[in-house]
Specification:
By secondary structure, this protein is an alpha+beta fold. It contains 5 helices and 12 strands. Helix 2 packs across helix 5.
């Protein structure tokens, strides 16, 4: 794995599984993401409007007002997608020292997104690739829509710092970058010192990670014009149920 690269090395669809097994990550272009979903890229780009009007994240412990988000959960079995009743997002303190240990109830993603066939095909397409690496009966999937803005001068995509998510695989999609600098992605081997840094710049490019092998973070963003913001989609895939607090049931 190279130590420094601001333009990410891209992985073709046919080599994603090998990269995730070996390197622990793969970075995929928007065109290849569209192939994974089996839809025209324009169908994914049309989803960008559904990042407008995200509610502010009320749980930030640093007092910031820069993060907005929505959340939806699914089960995927035999390439069939089922949305589950709306649930809290929960992580243990082992994986999120800043916001772990509490139930975070975010507003659900809009029906215009969850009913969209390109959206559904994308989640299933990613699951299909991951099942080729780790065959499981059911994937438990959480989808997070994020907007980080620069209204207060700086926005922090990962205020918890470099971290793992406590799942099997993570997909971080860049949806859009508007009037910002920064937002560099950094990934590190969980059991080593080798890392990679780069900037996702193309809408619907994605970083796929084996969460057991990789630690990740994104650097703060600053405005270079009015209304600076960075929109992302984070999908997590877990094979042994959702992460639940002691107060939640599987």
């Amino acid at each position: 794995m190279p130590s420094l690269s601001l333009s990410p090395p891209l992985t073709p669809v046919g080599e994603i599984a090998q990269s995730l097994r070996g390197d622990g990550y793969a970075i995929v272009s928007p065109e290849e993401v569209a192939k994974i979903a089996g839809v025209p890229l324009n169908d994914l780009l049309s989803l960008n409007l559904l990042w407008e009007g995200l509610p502010r994240d009320p749980y930030l412990k640093d007092g910031g007002r820069y993060r907005f988000r929505r959340h939806v959960s699914y089960e995927i079995a035999n390439d069939a997608l089922s949305m589950v009743p709306h649930r809290a997002h929960w992580q243990s303190l082992n994986y999120n020292a800043l916001h772990g240990g509490i139930e975070r109830w975010f507003e659900p993603s809009p029906v215009a997104l969850t009913n969209n066939s390109a959206w559904q095909s994308l989640l299933i397409g990613i699951a299909h690739i991951l099942s080729g690496i780790k065959p499981v009966k059911t994937w438990f999937v959480e989808a997070h829509q994020f907007r980080i803005d620069t209204t207060d001068g700086i926005g922090r995509p990962t205020p918890e710092g470099a971290h793992r998510d406590g799942v099997d695989f993570v997909a971080v999609f860049l949806v859009d970058r508007v009037n910002i600098k920064g937002g560099e992605t950094r990934i590190f081997e969980a059991n080593g010192s080798v890392g990679l840094r780069f900037t996702l710049a193309q809408p619907w490019s994605v970083l796929l990670m084996n969460d057991e092998k990789m630690i990740h973070e994104s650097t703060p963003i600053q405005p270079i014009g009015p209304h600076g913001h960075r929109d992302t989609l984070v999908l997590t895939y877990r094979s042994n149920g959702f992460q639940d607090s002691p107060n939640q049931s599987q």
